[in-house]
Amino acid sequence: MTENDTDDTDDTDVTDVTEVTDDTDGAVDGTRRGRRFGLSPLAVWGLAALGVPRVVAHDLSLVGPELNLVLVFAPPLAWLAVVCGRRVATPLPALSMVGLAYGVLLAVTHQVLWEQAFADGLPTLGGDLAGTLSPLWEDVLVRGFAVVSSVATGLGVGVATGVVAWVLVRVRQRLRGARDRSAGG
Q: Is the terminal CB of the chain with fewer CB neighbours within 10 Å at N or C?
């Protein structure tokens, strides 16, 4: 009997349940508690944290452009490796969540390092808005835009990486299907 079958002697209602494999880390269609998107919360935040060193290095001007380039692309490449290696069934939502978590970490890190990052002068409103708000409200507004921008950037990186992962998964599936068809015929 498979998981999709019902046993007449059992009153349990078994609905369409996808096969559970080790590839999905015990998740059933990515809906197992804590793994709704194919990754555990710890994995989501752990992958997101891979981007924090770049934020710190950038805000404190610790690295040159070459190393900064590595720090920019290494985390999303690691995200791809994890979701493709673990064969996460839904890479786009999984990496969107990683990106959202990365955006939150990006925002928090920028706020913590704000004064060090702008040691030469804090950002202010310009143009027609210059001087229209008190310094406190101007700081709140500028920092608020930085938070929104950070979260949006993180989410954008996650979605873009998720799209790449989705394409890679589809290509792998097509290649596997073609290989299976050629082996069977």
A: C
